Amino acid sequence: MDLEGLKEKFYQLVAPSLPNEWDVEDALSPLVESDSACLEEIFAQVPAIWPVSHALCFAYLSAAGPALCHLALDELSLWVHTLLDRYETGGLAGAQLFMADVDQQFARQLRGQGCLRLTDVRSRLQPYVNGLAGRELPLLAAAEAATDSQAIFLPGEIGVFVEHEENFLLYKLMASFQWASLAAGMFAAPRFLKLHRKSAHPLDCFFSEFQPPDSARRLFHLLETGRMLSFLRRELPGLMRAATPLLPRLPLSGDGASALNVLDWMQRGLLRDQWPAENHSALVDQATALLRQYSGQSIDNSASLEAVRELMPLLSPEEHLAGTNPLIFQGVFRLQEMRNLGMKQQADKEVRMMQAYAASLPAVRGKIDVDPQSGNDGGRGYDAALIMEPEHAWEQLPPFMQSQSQQIDISEMAAPALNPPQEHGSTRMIEQTVSATGGKAGCAAARGPHAGGRKGEGMAEHVVYDEWDYRRKGFRKKWCVVNEKEVQPVQNAFVEQTLKQYRGQIRRLRHQFELLQTGERFVRRQRDGVDIDFDGLVESLADSVAGQPPSDRLFIRLARDHRDIAAVFLVDMSNSTSGWVGQSIKEALVLICEAMEMLDDRYAIYGFSGMRRLRCEVFPVKRMDEPYSQTVRQRISAIGPREYTRMALAIRHMTSLFARVEAKVRLLIVLSDGKPEDYDDYKGDYAIEDTRHALLEAKARGIHPFCITIDRQAHAYMAHMYGEVSYIFIDQIRKLPARMSEIYRALTS
Amino acid sequence: MRIDEFRIEEEPYYLAIGDELAIAEAAYHDGSPLLLKGPTGCGKTRFMQYLAWRLQRPLVTVSCHDDLSTSDLVGRYLISAGEAVWTDGPLTLAVRAGAICYLDEIVEARKDTTVVIHPLADDRRQLPIEKRGELLTAPPEFMLAVSYNPGYQSVLKDLKASTRQRFVVLSFDYPSADKEVAIVCREGHLEPELAKSLVKLAGMTRGLKDSGLAEGASTRLLIQAGKLIGRSIPIKTACRAAISEALTDDRELLAALDEMVSSLF
């Protein structure tokens, strides 16, 4: 196909957009030579990419031709699927990096080969590591494997081996090794230290006794690696049996080097069982002998520390060990971070102890106050000094407390974190993801969730959700942000007027709902039960005497019907609900609330509106555990038309709220006046398919969605979104208040 | 039901974890009721069997459920040959015979049902049978014991303070590693090394509370896995069938449990 033909096809696909002609020509010119089947497949992906990013779409068109050299035609859509994921996590630069190397980044992955990313294995490895450690030990991405006692750091991706399975095993070995270094006491403080700095890790103090300290550290780490491998062989024999064939295949920095230093020899010995010939050099001989001698036997790090003392004098001053990289699973030390964490925990512990001690001091204070030798001014008690001057105060603590606060026990660092470091928390994650999902501009976070807030409406929390894109048959990851906003209660006569206007109907509804209320009732003529049903018995005896077969249903049973229902009413607060529509919806809410008071069913009312994907708003009118109070009535009065209808997002938010509610029946009733629609491209099939998917997700979590709509066009799309029987169309808006309560009654009885 | 059917003839295997036996025997002699709490499969029921055997009393066990009525415990009238005949429920049977009545998972029963045990569980030691207008006083040999698992019941199913505060409480937990190895060896007919690895696996699963596992593998599950292994089922298959699949349906957690199994064996 010539360039003009390609351009025409492209413009048809992206209509009504009219991108610059020269951009289009640049992007399409490499495709002129492609055959028609390839072109068709390449163009078929454009509708999925164009709405996400125009720049990405042009980059894709330029890269698609070369990509097809590595991929089969039917693999292109999967490649685009991954490309979009990469774009959403790494921006355009990340996507370009992905497109630049199709074979390494995608084709080999597809065939179960190549690099394995930590994000792909975390779901499997994280519980594994938690299980090993008996506590939460987060797996975080870093350049090299390490641990700081509160987390395990692993490389973001591993591509040492060709097969995924082997790379996974290496990940597992790395994680297990780092756990072992904590469990087997690699970081325990040496017993005798010449130098001691409180701010430094005791091991760092130990290494600084030698010159250069880095060599001592490297020797120690490798000697301990030998011990850790033995520890793992004992503790996790299955893992080590599987990993043993891999170890000799791990690349070593000594491979290809002209001369090997002591670390290279030790690494070769450990992984490949290639020990140096005797009389190599005093250092190498001694080091390898110690490695072989101690690694299998010692239970703590003291032998390795002694070995370092023995070996360091043998190391010539000009020999540097920095050229030897640590083994990939061994990683690096993070001693200073570990020390800082330990000190923070220690400080927290001391403060807590002092507070606890201070609280129990009144008796001591009385004694000290009357002591003329005490040096205290009498007005300020012992306990006050304890709190005000903690640096002196600890000396006044009883001896057992002194020893507690003075002790530098590294093993405690491995104890469960009382206050997990904040940086692992969700706040930072959300901030990051918001800016990542901001696409190429990256400034979305700044303008997104905070923009447009109305005065008087408190911001509660931001939650990020995926959005379903039917064109790519996948989620746009972390695409939308929901803000839960408080509705400012409004004092007016609306509720009173409604109650007055519908008083007859309300009385009837309350009566009907009261009938729904179930409790205990006696069921007669049962085969077994708590008591004899004398009517049944008399009848049965009479039948028997008359020669009829007697009934065996002779008992009364106490039947207990328990309504365990939780319902959420999700109200569309889009602009189109202004006027009568909004008025009727509010009246319907008042009526249902009045009627619901007769039941024990838990229920919540939420409104939703918003504009664009980063400012979707959900308004709690009545939370599940909140009573129907005057404030709730005032919030109902405050419901008013706002912006657009990105309904799927509100449904997803309700689904996540429902996850915290324990109930046998969970009902989501959506009140809407039209199709889902937003200011951006969120409309038509895209919006309907996204909403349908959100409803499927809700159903999968055991929630029954039901929609009450007043849209005359509803039949065209409602059945597709909700299913044939899960929606109802109300043709006269004035009937809504009465119908809604009836619908609820019918749905739950 | 004949009370002799509830006698335990053979000594059940039970390895004492602490001083639970001494406390239970003291409570028996004092006429105090027992409350056993602890996670599932940690040996509560086995302890009761052992205690009953030691005290040479029949053990009447009732597994409580949310439809259990007072009549199910105390008794009811049944029709037989045109006559209404009173039939004792398990609790009445145990009181009359001076047996041990063990109400397993008491919180599963409705709260109004459990109130019937109140006069029996304090110093009155009486069981009123309203339908017969009878007031039974329990003989000194009678003992009431109830159990519950504080781990998985919802807040709705907590034990009422008025019920709870009548009992001598024994708190059970999984045994220490060496004792658990001994139990798994004996009950699962396993070599100590294999039992040790199974216990290590259980320890790992018990650390997964924050990762979405409600409860870790119980000693009972380990014994079941051990029995499967004893019947020549490969270790990993046995662990999958008896432990992993019994603990969770979550695919990711199952995969993580598989990783633990493959690391240990």
Descriptive account of the structure:
In chain A, the strands form four sheets. Chain A has an eight-stranded mixed sheet with strand order 6-7-13-12-11-14-15-16, sandwiched between helices. Chain A is an alpha/beta fold. In chain A, strand 11, helix 26 (580-596) and strand 12 form a beta-alpha-beta unit. Chain A has 31 helices and 16 strands. Residues 363-458 of chain A have low confidence and may be disordered. Chain A is extended, with a radius of gyration of 36 Å. Chain B has 265 residues and is α/β, with parallel strands linked by helices. Chain B has two domains: 3-171, P-loop containing nucleotide triphosphate hydrolases (Rossmann fold, 3-Layer(aba) Sandwich); 177-264. Chain B has twelve helices and nine strands. In chain B, the strands form three sheets. In chain B, strands 2-5-8-1-9 form a five-stranded parallel sheet. In chain B, helix 9 (192-206) packs antiparallel against helix 10 (219-230) and helix 10 runs antiparallel to helix 11. The longest helix of chain B is centred in the last third of the chain and has 15 residues, at 192-206. In chain B, 43% of the residues are buried. The mean pLDDT of chain B is 89. At the A-B interface, helix 8, helix 12, strand 9 and helix 25 of A face strand 3, helix 9 and helix 12 of B.
